[in-house]
Fold this sequence. Notes:
This protein is α+β, with helices and mostly antiparallel strands. It has 7 helices and 6 strands, in the order H-E-E-E-E-H-E-H-H-H-H-E-H. Strands 2-1-3 form a 3-stranded antiparallel sheet, with helices on one face. The protein has a 3-stranded antiparallel sheet with strand order 4-5-6, with helices on one face. A hairpin with a 3-residue loop joins strand 1 and strand 2. The chain is elongated and about 75 Å long. The model is unreliable at 6-23 (pLDDT under 50).
Amino acid sequence: MKKFIACVIILLIASGAVFFFGWTQFKVGADSCGVLVSKTGGVNSEPVLPGKFSWHWECLLPTNATLKIFSTKPHVVSKTASGDLPSADVYGSMFDVAPNFSYRFDFMMTCRVASENIIELIRDGLVADDESLDAYIDSSCASLASKAASHILTKSFEDSSFRSESLTTSELLSLVNAAKDFPHIDFTHFAVTASRIPDSMLYTRARELFLEVHKFEVKESERNKRMSELLNELQQLSSGTES
């Protein structure tokens, strides 16, 4: 009887150990998800979520599996896109006091990556851990900010009354094709919080003046070159006559 009880206790302990080592749910906290990556099965297709029971036999094999923990909290990202209009310094030299042809846009974005999309990012080799997920989101937001700035500048040159701060989240996201370029990221807020746009009419006029002056200088250079060639020809003819 004692042997039987001992065997039952051993079996219960072994069963408990097997259950504990394979139980993955308790390792994942609130606002997080886990992704099981194993040598035997690769990236598991089902995320490990808090409050949802999960058990994986892959964890029973030593050094076989790793449970990667990722935050699913929304990310609030601020980005600035700034620079000078093309050839701003060249066109500005047409004035006694060079005008400011620089631009700047401050953006605020709120986004998150769902657990199933984190799995896709890992499989695509774009993300390996929570730190690289943060870096991926940050670089994605920087790319969208740069793209948005370019589109806004184009619109402001087409319509001087256009105000970038009036753009809604859906308008901005559509403008930069966010859903196409970054389908794994869910953007819930995208706005221009501040902007500085150079005078489009002044810039256009400065460019026209520069092109006019450059065209005149080219013609003048060609005329001087032609005059020099004619003088050389006359000198050669004169030398031939004298001989």
